[in-house]
Design a protein that fits this description.
The chain has 278 residues and is an alpha/beta fold. It is 39% helix and 14% strand. It has two domains: 244 residues, Phosphoenolpyruvate-binding domains (TIM Barrel, Alpha-Beta Barrel), CATH 3.20.20; 31 residues. The protein is globular. The two termini are 31 Å apart.
Length: 278
Amino acid sequence: MSYAGQNEQSAQRKKRRVPDILARKGAVPVKALTCYDATFARLLEKSDIDVVLVGDSLGHVMQGGDSTITVTADDVAYHTRCVARALRTPLLVADVPFGSAGLIDNRLFEDVEKLMRAGAEAVKIEGASAEICSQIRRLTTHGIPVMGHIGLVPQSVHALGGYRVQGKSDEARERLLAEAQRLVEAGCFAIVLELVDEQTARYVTSNCPVPTIGIGAGNSCDGQILVLQDMLGMNLDFKPKFLKHFAELENVITNALSAYCSEVAERTFPAGKNNERQ
Ligand code: KIV
């Protein structure tokens, strides 16, 4: 059995590359989701998703932590390698983890090297300070595509005082636009707007020459991204306002587990002649 994602549908679809995503500004919305493993990557390959992000949200989804701060570049590289084995068509982006960008110069470049060698085709970096933008500029100048990320930046959750909607005041709105413009000048090909006031997201989107990709930022962004396990409803207790459960896999999976437990206990599985006791 192979987990490789090549199939009839993906053979017919065109590989998404950075210029394709840039060209979607103000046009067809960019469809993005996170992914952390080969099993789901194989399924994404059967969909029309444009961008797959190996997000540091793996700290919650894969590692069971309560923030993204504990996630390392080795963690992201490991999951990027798993996804890259089964993904062909979408653009594969890997998250630069906490403690990398803006702080220690060499750390960022070493971490980005790890992520690109693991199979990433671009990296995503949180924040837009002058230091971060000058590091982004160095990366983009050297041919490494960077996706920016502003608004609620989870790696700074302690400084932001929690997971709160950003950009509500006029001043905050202008600050977010200035951040987006700095990221564009640094060479970012797209910018994630996370938990941003809807009007502000519309304002930033209409004044930004590269696609904005929203999560909890309304529907005027140039694209949308969600955490895969969240939108599939694998944890129905987790339902922030902006999230839609497109399925309720928690119920599907727990029903299957109960059926398996009952059938094993009752010796109705496996069925047939293997079922007879020796
Ligand atoms: O880590 C992540 O999954 C993200 C997306 C939610 C944008 O940063």
